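Study both lines:
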Amino acid sequence: MKHVIVIGAGAAGMMAAIAAADSGAEVTLIEKNEKAGKKLFITGKGRCNVTNACDTEDLFANVCTNEKFLYSAFYTFDNKAIMDFLEKAGCRLKIERGDRVFPVSDHSSDVISAFLREISKRNIKIIYRTIVEEILTETENEVQTQEGKAGKKADKRVCGVMLADGKRLQADSVIVCTGGKSYPTTGSDGSGYRMAEDTGHRVVEPTPALVPLNCCEEWCRNLMGLSLRNVSLTLVKGKKELYTGFGEMLFTHFGITGPLVLSASSYYVKYKDKGQEPAYVYIDLKPALDMQQLDKRLLRDFEENKNKQFKNALGGLFPAKLIPVMVTLSGIHPEKKVNEISKAERQGFAELIKKLPLRVTEARSFAEAIITQGGVSVKDVNPSTMESKKVNRLFFAGEVLDLDAMTGGFNLQIAWSTGYLAGQNA
């Protein structure tokens, strides 16, 4: 019986271990923490957005980096497959707004428990509080290709791992599922990148993604804690529109966050070093109205409040906290009577409502990032098997790879799909 070692008991690692066991291997799962699924436990604000129930084609549309690499992974083990797996494992699921899938209980611990039950059923050995220091390899020149013909594939193959205490464990295959660098308190320290580089793999520089954004406008601080729903957000760098989306966002003491902003951030970090132009976020506060409809709305509101000062006539348009900011940015004197506002001023105000600008200065750190962008280059990995092209019988899965996606369960789907494919082939 082949022995497979899986490094990391997160989403990808647990799935890889189960898939390897189901394919007939003896499996050892090594985890540096005291328990499995530590990052999984905090995903989705502790509710665990396990996947998205969209069509398979929409899975690809929500991947930001290297979506074509995921073709075999998504079609081998898709969103329906993980939902079916969890339901059969005793974790009932529900579908919410945006096709986001959660456990019925709203407890991420139920997802982890389901995986641990399946791991136990398969007699997979889990070793906790154990750090893998090195992937051990040996020289190998002539190997059998998948077609069964002799041929040169790589001059190294995996033979095991060395632990931090110096102990060596032998293995026929090793799957690296160590995650990225986001949420370092969960043990994501980037160790997988070092192991990959030590075995000759290229690593695309890791950066924080799905992360809040710093903005330079002082008025952001005045709006700290204000949540805007049903707004549209567009991210622009120079003349290039990088992202546009509809949903919810939140102002903070440093800038902006919330689902819309987190999605936009993945494109900001991807393009921030390309060219010298600054990046701007434009918020459309009334996306359901075009300029003509908005002008009619303003005329109606102004007519109803024609004898009021401008600053006191906007209660029907914005949350109270936002009104002073909008008044200041409009350039209209706050004490000007509404019936004295000119057509040009009104149209300028409408343009501000449709395109409230914020200059983005930087993304926040890994400590606040949901995922990592960058990682082991997919050019060094076979997309049909997740096996390394540099070292035979070495596999990679999950966030350690240079793959990332939007919020909504898509990043966990990458973990399940690549983990399953790696385990099946290891």
